[in-house]
């Protein structure tokens, strides 16, 4: 195996589970090199932290590394990987991805969504009402991207039910990241199986209850519009698009590239909608928030972006989509933000078979974590890597994020790269352009740019706080594995959960003390 810290018998490096973050793995790579191996129970974990090895994984041996790892909760909550993000590489994934890229994620389609424009306009009006008082940009933009994806999925006029849906998503994200012994020791699956499985079933039932009704309403609408006028143009949402492929009894095993037809059942539609909600909400919100934070910290660059907006758009009208292509410096600032703060800092892949990488053995079903965050700050690839400097992208030879430059991977590269890139960039650029064009910003309470806290928290940023972990930023959830509730010596699993970030990756730990 590649070099890595020595582990204990049976549990291996499970005690280092808190190192499975972009920062933790970057620090291990300083010690063990760009390819590092950890043994987490039965699970082999391989971390990749250099552009050169990333190229080998995402390009040279792309097919071997193109599966996705999934834990017990993910398999159950995605209807046995009936979605695109967690489906393993194969005919089902290939055909589903083709349809999603053509029908759901194209830039042309995004631009036709009134929802992006309307929601950005709504956010601007909300900020306007708060002129003179501090605005919580993070909360504001998370609400924005939540609304964009919700309306794009279910219909542009509906915000009814959004809160209920977000609560369901929140429970999903807690379960995706909850510590489950079976993920590390499959033969210990019985330890907390009953309670955990009950929670999983409850969460999936809530989603079924919510989306099945929406799908049924869409089917009725589709049948009615057929009887009215076949050629009439109707405003379609993602459910409408996917229903064009609907067949009640479709099965994943029907997917065969020799057949030209593709059929989805309700589970596929639900799982694909969840991909969009998880993939497209927090990623874009986090990028907008970091972009504003970095520009607040760098007033010279902020001034340049605002001057460009004045030159291109003027001050007598709002920014329009067609302006975006001309906003060269703004685009550079967005690239620089994604370099320093990739919203998905670790690309999670899994090997389909045994392979050899840089002379080391990598077994089948290894979890491969490509550290896009560390690679974006690699001192061999970037000059002054930790400095926010959008001008570095003015040079035509600067790396691009389209997937061919392995030192810059905010959207990944190769087969599993982000299919929502165009859509994500569109929402990101439009939102930042509007916020900087409509308002002058300053830090609250006389704070100086140098005092701005630019630390990040891996995976979760809880807005609720929690007394249990004595840390105001994290909300943790304990579930009793052994012993009595509240008594010392009881063994708990303790998952860091969050209200804000739907996709939590790996930041969990075990408490061995009943008092918490
Ligand atoms: C700034 C915005 C975004 C960023 C930085 C981003 C980044 C990423 C990254 C890094 C991956 C994984 C690539 C890999 O494993 O190699 C990914 C996958 C994915 N993204 Fe995005 N994303 C963004 C926006 C979106 C949007 C708006 C959508 C949908 C509406 C979306 C849907 C997906 C899906 C479905 C996948 C899984 C693809 C697959 O496994 O085949 N993303 N994204």
Automatic annotation (TrEMBL):
It is found in: Membrane. PROSITE patterns: CYTOCHROME_P450 (PS00086). It comes from the Eukaryota. Its cofactor is heme. InterPro entries: CYP450_84A, Cyt_P450, Cyt_P450_CS, Cyt_P450_E_grp-I, Cyt_P450_sf. GO terms for molecular function: heme binding; iron ion binding; monooxygenase activity; oxidoreductase activity, acting on paired donors, with incorporation or reduction of molecular oxygen. One of its GO terms (cellular component) is membrane. The keyword Metal-binding applies. Belongs to the cytochrome P450 family. PANTHER family: CYTOCHROME P450 84A1-RELATED (PTHR47945), FERULATE 5-HYDROXYLASE (PTHR47945:SF6). This is CYTOCHROME P450 84A1-RELATED. It comes from Salix viminalis.
């Amino acid at each position: 195996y590649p070099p890595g810290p020595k582990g204990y018998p049976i549990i291996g490096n499970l005690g280092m589970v808190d190192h499975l973050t972009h920062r933790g793995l970057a620090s291990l790579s300083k010690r063990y090199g760009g390819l590092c191996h950890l043994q987490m129970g039965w699970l082999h974990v391989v971390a990749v932290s250099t552009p050169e090895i990333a190229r080998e994984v995402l390009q040279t041996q792309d097919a071997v590394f193109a599966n996705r790892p999934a834990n017990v909760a993910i398999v159950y909550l995605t209807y046995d990987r009936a979605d695109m993000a967690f489906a393993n590489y194969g005919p089902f994934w290939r055909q589903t991805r083709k349809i999603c890229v053509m029908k759901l994620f194209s830039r042309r389609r995004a631009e036709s969504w009134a929802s992006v424009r309307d929601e950005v306009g709504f956010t601007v009006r909300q900020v306007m009402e708060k002129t003179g008082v501090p605005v919580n940009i993070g909360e504001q933009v998370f609400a924005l991207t939540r609304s964009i994806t919700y309306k794009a999925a279910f219909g542009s006029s509906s915000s009814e039910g959004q809160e209920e849906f977000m609560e369901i998503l929140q429970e999903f994200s807690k379960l995706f990241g909850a510590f489950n012994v079976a993920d590390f020791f499959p033969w210990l699956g019985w330890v907390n199986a009953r309670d955990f499985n009950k929670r999983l079933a409850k969460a999936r039932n809530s989603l079924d209850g919510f989306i099945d009704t929406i799908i049924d309403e869409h089917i009725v609408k589709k049948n009615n519009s057929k009887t009215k006028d076949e050629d009439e143009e109707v405003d379609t949402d993602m459910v409408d698009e996917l229903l064009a492929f609907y067949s009640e009894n479709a099965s994943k095993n029907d997917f065969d590239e020799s057949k030209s037809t593709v059929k989805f059942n309700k589970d596929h539609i639900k799982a694909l909608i969840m991909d969009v909600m998880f993939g497209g909400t927090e990623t874009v919100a986090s990028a907008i928030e970091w972009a504003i934070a970095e520009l607040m910290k760098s007033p010279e660059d902020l001034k340049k972006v605002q001057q460009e907006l004045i030159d291109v758009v003027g001050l007598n009208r709002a920014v329009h989509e067609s302006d975006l292509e001309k906003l060269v410096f703004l685009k550079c600032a967005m690239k620089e933000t994604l370099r320093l703060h990739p919203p998905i800092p670790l690309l999670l892949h899994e090997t389909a078979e045994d392979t050899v990488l840089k002379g080391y053995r990598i077994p089948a079903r290894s979890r491969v974590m490509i550290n896009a965050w560390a690679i974006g700050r690699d001192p061999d690839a970037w000059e002054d890597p930790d400095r926010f400097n959008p001008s570095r992208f003015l040079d035509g030879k600067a790396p691009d994020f389209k997937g061919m430059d392995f030192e810059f991977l905010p959207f990944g590269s190769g087969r599993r790269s982000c299919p929502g890139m165009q859509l994500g960039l569109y929402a990101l650029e439009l939102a930042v352009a509007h916020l900087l064009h409509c308002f002058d910003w300053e830090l609250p309470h006389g704070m100086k740019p140098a005092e701005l806290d630019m630390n990040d928290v891996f995976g979760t940023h809880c807005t609720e706080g929690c007394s249990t972990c004595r840390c105001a930023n994290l909300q943790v959830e304990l579930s009793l594995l052994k012993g009595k509730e509240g008594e010392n010596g009881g063994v708990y699993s303790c998952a860091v959960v969050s209200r804000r970030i739907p996709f939590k990756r790996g930041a969990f730990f075990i408490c061995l003390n009943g008092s918490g």
